[in-house]
From TrEMBL:
It holds the Pfam family Acetyltransf_3. Residues 2-159 form the N-acetyltransferase domain. Belongs to the acetyltransferase family. RimJ subfamily. Keywords: Acyltransferase, Transferase. The lineage of its organism: Bacteria, Bacillati, Actinomycetota, Actinomycetes, Kitasatosporales. It comes from the Bacteria. This is N-acetyltransferase domain-containing protein. One of its GO terms (cellular component) is cytoplasm. GO terms for molecular function: protein-N-terminal-alanine acetyltransferase activity. It comes from Streptomyces roseochromogenus subsp. oscitans DS 12.976.
Length: 159
């Protein structure tokens, strides 16, 4: 059974392994993080944890029973009762409902623990899997957008 956990410093090694293992897979549908991200991973993790401590973001990892990271699901730019949702699931865990489960779990946390009233999200038109997950979890299309120069859709979900 997967578990959704708030990001902690001790997740660092498993999170870095997750990002490295899935780098090419993610780059097929979202912009690559670049070599600098991996070279300065510890600094980036510390910055994320500082943002989380300040309450402007809520970062999470999805782990398996052995503590291996299967995914990330984040709420960022928290303000005015809302936040932007972002997530990524490991290639080996894709297609099994883990993304939808994770989004549902973080929506419950957003409403119950973080006091948020809505979430927004965006994905590219060619990312059919993410579009399906957002639709299945109660997000509705609210308009078009561009993500790294690619056409996409913006979504919203009331909590």
């Amino acid at each position: 059974m997967p578990e959704l956990q708030p990001l902690r410093l001790d997740h660092g090694p498993a999170l870095l392994a997750f990002e490295r293992e899935n780098r090419a897979y993610f780059a097929a549908s979202v912009p690559d993080r670049g070599d600098e991200y991996f070279a300065r991973f510890d600094e980036r993790l510390s910055a994320l944890l500082a943002e989380q401590e300040a309450g402007v973001c809520h970062f999470h990892v999805v782990t398996d029973a052995d503590g291996e990271v299967l995914g990330r699901i984040n709420l960022y730019d928290v303000s005015d009762g809302g936040a932007e949702l972002g997530y990524r699931i490991a290639e080996r865990a894709a297609g099994r409902g883990l993304a939808a489960w994770s989004v549902r779990e973080v929506c419950a946390l957003a409403a119950g623990s973080y006091g948020l009233t809505f979430l927004t999200a965006a994905t590219t038109l060619d990312n059919a899997a993410s579009r399906a997950v957002l639709a299945r979890t109660g997000f509705t299309v609210v308009g078009g957008t561009r993500l790294s120069g690619r056409p996409g859709l913006s979504y919203r979900r009331s909590l």
